[in-house]
Amino acid sequence: MDVRGVVVRSLAVAGLAFVAQSAALADDTKEQVTYRVTISNLTVGQPFTPPVVAFHNNRAQIFEVGEPAIEGVRQIAENGNNAPLVAALAGDTNVRAFYQGNAPLVPAANPGGAPFDSEVTFEVTTDRSARFLSFVSMLICTNDGFTGLNTVRLPSNSAKTTFLARGYETRTEQNTEDFSDIVPPCQGLIRGEVSEPGTGESNPLLSENGVIIPHIGVIGDNDLSRRTYGWSDPVAKVEVQRVRNSK
User: Fold this and answer.
1) Does position 67 have pLDDT exceeding 60, yes or no?
2) Whose CA is closest to 217, among 171, 180, 168?
């Protein structure tokens, strides 16, 4: 599976990734607001898939602890597949804008030395009806782990707001911690070598019918050692700043 995901009409300007994606929902007659967002990987051994970030009103629910994961979140958590969630956001009238990254986020002290960054900064412009932010990224070296934020309030002024995100699991796939059951970028992004091909597809034999819970972390009883692939919460930092308004 290509860990870069799909670029959503993005371009690099002065070191920032600006994304002109509004899902054709923003009302141009309303005041437009631009937010600058930075997402950072705080772990030692868990790379993230390119983040999917939604700007929405309070009627949108991307995920909720204690509830079953929607298909888009399950596909990210199990397979690192952003496409179903991106399609769902594009068709949701409660979502006013969204962003999708174009590269994985690796730990800052990444033992594999993969040529990717540990954080991404981007700007999104939306109308003022978007009062909340949600985001989801897979914890790549897990069976069904992810990190994210669900419906946190966007800042109402120029002060920077910081959110910390923990690790979750959808409980839709058993935690085998076996490279053969985990998306193949895991090994290359952390250790710089690939010993097993891995998979970007769900295995029905490992299927579970659980609800989203905080992730218990890496146990270390198979291919994933706690020392190399483990983490402690929080796993991600999200900084949001309102940078300008326009008519």
Assistant:
1) yes
2) 168
The pLDDT assigned to 49 comes to: 97
Cβ burial of 162 (10 Å; 0-12, 13-18, 19+) is exposed
CB contact set of 64 (below 8 Å; sequence gap of 6+): 150, 212
Question: Strand 16-19 and strand 119-127: pairing?
Answer: parallel
Cα 14 to Cα 40, 72, 121, 122, distances in angstroms? 19, 32, 11, 11
Q: Are 170 and 139 in contact (CB under 8 A)?
A: no
Burial 98-118 (b: 16+ CB within 10 A, else e): bbbbbbbbbbeebebebebeb
Whether pLDDT at 180 is above 90? yes
Residue with tokens 């204690």, as numbered in its chain:
66
Residue 59 or residue 85, greater confidence: 85
Neighbouring-strand partners of residue 163:
238
- CB within 8 Å of 9: residues ≥ 6 apart: 19, 20, 21
Per-residue CA distances from 211 to 67, 134, 137, 148, 153 (Å): 5, 18, 17, 15, 24
